[in-house]
Specification:
alpha/beta; 23% strand; binds 2'-monophosphoadenosine-5'-diphosphate
Length: 271
């Protein structure tokens, strides 16, 4: 029997993870079966334990269960603990190990696929929800010159500054604070793209040759990426690469083998 893995969420039918992991398994010759599991909104733990009892070796967790997965884990990696959210569970020796590969997925996409070295860069992270919290530690570990975090609700950005200030140069700034400041990398971690809108930022936040990165992805460029392009930014990316890179990191945690991500990203982008 193939080793069993799954992605658990609600809804789940839209998830690209089974496809991505099938491509990884094919490419690396690993004996892996990866399925999609719909968990009822009130019974995420039951779904996890049921999967473990059926021989599940690990699972990815997606909306809306990342916080519950964090609570269910018997052991957490530092990055999952900082993120207060778990997207990767490993079932091993009667333990449920919780990890979070979203942040390293973003960092790997930016540094390897988009060839932007984050060391000594000025980074602006827009948004202060779970998506932001999940990526701050891996971003700070790249030793940027500064990581500025901004949010429509400023208090939440300030709380993240306090949580992470011992890890690096992080500052919270309100959205109206950017009159004359610019950044080398501007990352949209808000959910505004889902409403086809974007955070209210001035065009000067984009430095010459800046990268504008939206952690969301959709068939059409997001409103944030359209705004960046209209502001003269040429280097634009949505979150497809991050999606594939976070999956690759989960695959590596489970199988100790690193899949090639570039052909998978190219395939997803072409469709
Ligand atoms: P998640 O945990 O998935 O990140 P969340 O906690 O609801 O989701 O956070 C969503 C983020 O997107 C928040 O930073 C939110 O700003 P607020 O904290 O002010 O609510 C931001 N956001 C959502 N819609 C937005 C919009 N139209 N304009 C600007 N920011 C928006």
């Amino acid at each position: 029997m193939l080793d069993q893995y799954a992605v658990i969420g609600n809804p789940i039918s839209h998830s690209q993870s089974p496809r991505i992991h099938a491509l990884f398994a094919q490419q690396t010759g690993q004996s892996v079966q990866y399925s999609a599991l719909l968990a009822p909104l009130d019974s995420f733990p039951i779904t996890v334990f049921d999967f473990i009892n059926k021989g599940g070796r690990g699972a990815n967790v997606t909306l809306p269960f990342k916080l519950q997965a964090h609570q269910l884990a018997t052991r957490l990696t530092e990055r999952a603990s900082c993120a207060q959210a778990v997207n990767t569970l490993t079932f091993e020796n009667n333990e449920i190990i919780g990890d979070n590969t979203d942040g390293i997925g973003l960092v790997n996409d930016i540094s390897r696929n988009l060839a932007v070295n984050l060391a000594s860069k000025r980074i602006l992270l827009i948004g202060a929800g779970g998506a932001s919290r999940g990526v701050i530690l891996p971003l700070l570990q790249q030793k940027p010159l500064l990581l500025t975090i901004t949010n429509r609700t400023f208090d939440k950005a300030e709380a993240l500054q306090q949580q992470f200030q011992s890890y690096g140069n992080i500052h919270a700034r309100s959205l109206d604070h950017f009159i004359d400041q610019s950044f080398d990398v501007v990352i949209n971690a808000t959910s505004a793209s889902l409403q086809n809108t974007f955070p209210d930022i001035p065009v000067n936040v984009f430095a010459v040759d800046a990268l504008a990165y939206d952690m969301m992805y959709s068939k059409e460029p997001t409103a944030f990426l359209k705004f960046a392009q209209q502001s003269g930014v040429n280097h634009l990316s949505d979150g497809i690469g991050m999606l594939v890179e976070q999956a690759a990191e989960s695959f590596y945690i489970w199988r100790n083998v690193r899949p090639e991500t570039k052909p998978v990203i190219a395939l997803l982008k072409s469709q």
